[in-house]
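Data deposition worksheet. Section B asks for the primary sequence of the deposited chain exactly as it was used as input, without tags or linkers unless they were present during the calculation. Section C holds the resulting structure in token form. Section D is free text for depositor observations; keep each observation to a single sentence. Incomplete worksheets are returned to the depositor.
Section A, Depositor: J.P.
Section B:
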Amino acid sequence: MKRSKFTDAQIAFVLRQAEEGTSVAEVCRKAGIAEATFYNWRKKY
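Section C:
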């Protein structure tokens, strides 16, 4: 399996931003990830 270029802490930070009210699209744009990646992370973590 391919290693992620994001650490667990970075992933948690991105997910926390969305929980705090920032739109998913904006969070993804700032992090440089696709929305599909965000939803996969949310399902996994």
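Section D:
Helices lie at 8-19, 24-31, 35-44.
The first helix runs from residue 8 to 19.
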